[in-house]
Amino acid sequence: MKSVIAAAVTAVVVTIVMSGCVPVVSPEDDKLLIDTTKTDTTKTDTTKTDTTKTDTTKPVYKTTIMSVESDYMSGAMTAVVNGTYQNVLTSISPDAVIVSQLNERYILERDLANIIKLTPEGSVAYQVKLLKGFNPHDLVILNSAKGYVCGNSSDSIVVINPANGAPSSVISLSAILKEGITTNPTKMILLGDMLYVACQMRNGWNPGEGSVVVQIDTKTDAIVGTARCSFKNVSDLDVYKGNLVVTSSGAWNVVDGGVELVSIPSMATSVLVAGTTLGNEITSLAIDEKRGEFYGTLYRAWGDAPIVHYSSAFAPIDTVAGVVQGNAPQYDPLSDKLIAAEIGTTAKSSVFVWDPLKKTKNEYFTTLPVQSFVFISSLETN
Questions:
Q1: pTM
Q2: Is the pLDDT of residue 31 over 70?
Q3: Cα three-residue angle 171-173-176, rounded to 5 degrees
Q4: Counting Cβ atoms within 10 Å, is residue 238 exposed (0-12), middle (13-18) or buried (19+)?
């Protein structure tokens, strides 16, 4: 779930999806989501007076990281507020992800088909159950009266009322189906009045054909466009300069994925880089839009997935230090830092903040492997 909508704070949503005992690059691979909307945090008084005055108040960067963790036997959610740990929920499904929309947090219990909305304090505001087997993968909120949830085990999008989570209608994706192929929607982004849904297009557990991005007009909830990608098994969806970036991880243990651009509004596709060029698959991607650079999780083998810093042409620049099994790098434009996760194989599971200029890393360790996290950052004056 990603949306580019002005908000009071910059919210970045990240989701790491682990399927069974093999996370990151499973057929259900699902990287989290991101809202990289920049808010106006500095205001200048240009009124001319006889005496020049300078405001010396220095804004303070603050962040809250909320992570959902699981070893697939038990689940929990932890909050880290300005570097201080706060355990919030200790009893959630072991197959859950957290998303952030319009400054609200939601937990999607995938195996139970539950939507849980959290209060600002992190307790449960409401819990709504969708159809059994729906397998909710992502959620976006258009406004206070309308939101969308995609089900990875379905060929549909459920429209909900965010105030109480109640479903109001269903959008069928059957128009893009082919014989033997299921759509398996996994990622969504809102751009203006248009909802973009990334579909894995699977044949059973295997990639069936190239990833498809469906364009839905939120005024009518009708499908108005599609983009058919060259690479299979979409695992990430991002926004870059008003266009969509689709990362597809390809088939299991085969280097046949890549990163593509979907131009808006034409929905034309073009290849940015193939996995064969990089030597391995990128399974999740972050974008530093200011510099036109990328951070990708380069999956080489289980327990060997570094986060690599790439130029605009996907030439390697450097590697984030000390990452063993990384995933879901996301760039926070407010702090000019990278936020990502260490899943925890030979290293301890954590969410960390990486300063690409100083090459330093602050880690927040977790008891269980991180399945997904969101962070909400802001600049505040005292």
A1: 0.84
A2: no
A3: 155
A4: buried
